[in-house]
Amino acid sequence: MFSYRHAFHAGSHADILKHLIAIQLLRYLQEKPGALSIVDTHAGAGLYNLQDGFAAISQESAGGIVRLKDYLASTGADVPPSIADYLACVAIENAPESTALYPGSPFILARLLRPQDRLRLFELHPNEIDILRGNINQLHCVKQVDVYSADGFSRLKGLLPPPSRRGLTLIDPSYEDKNDYRNLESCLEEALSRFATGCYAIWYPVIARRESIALPERLKAIAKAHQRAWLCAELRVENAPGERRLQASGMFVFNPPWTLRDHLKDALPILKKALGLDSGAAYTLQSSEA
Question: For FRET with 63, which of 56, 69, 159, 265 sits at 20 to 30 Å CA-CA?
Fold first, then answer.
């Protein structure tokens, strides 16, 4: 279970979709002054050098953040606010015009914390957890961030409901272990039973595996059972049967803010054009309110 490393996929098209949505969720929730409890159940190392280590081996950032920036620079296309927000979060970690470092969700969320907010990060990988702690210790908000070497699926329930009754949870396991699908559903069922009004954002790969294909409909069923609104966005950058690299991914959000759909209606067409590799590039955007 410890073969997966977030660094292999740092700055990829999947990261762009995941992080763009996470930023918009946090921005909306921070419009009210009340304290936020933020949880990242599968945190990874937090910050990645795209020119070294696993990220340099995979080169997935070349088809992700690097390709997106090149497209926007070369076309002069109008940049939707959500993409601008995302690029600003990446730029914080880099010198001007550079994309040497890529922030994972722990760094993006931590950089956006207000004084009243708290971030809790979970990571089980024995190597990733030490790197994560070292990276987080560099931040000025370190006292607002708790890092746990623990299973985020099982530990989430102990944090719900948060004292402020306001919270955002990001869940993005590797799904290399098929049990992740079952654990995700169990985790969400319990989380929604304890804290029905929380915002839960789930990333998932779109791959030719039975569990992956069924996941969006199973999540919709959970939302219906708990009478919760939902939004589901998927981005495909190519359609190359037999190719092993990840070609598409999705984000499913329970209790999405009303603004999120409009942000994605503006952003997804740009991401498709910028990141698409063939005629199979596409996106979908569905919600319970549509």
Answer: 265
- What is the identity of the amino acid at 169? T
Rounded to whole angstroms, the maximal C-alpha distance in the chain is 49
Residue 175 three-state SS: coil
Query: pTM surpassing 0.70?
Result: yes
The two beta strands, 47-49 and 199-205, are unpaired
Return d(Cα 91, Cα 112) in angstroms, integer.
Answer: 13
How do residues 175-205 score in pLDDT, each as one tens digit? Answer: 988 899 999 999 999 999 999 999 999 999 9
From CA 263, how far away is CA 257, in angstroms rounded? Answer: 11
- Output the DSSP codes for 31-55: TS-S--EEEESS-TTSEEETTSHHH
- The residues annotated with a catalytic role in the active site are 172
For the record, the structure tokens of 49 come out as 């050098």
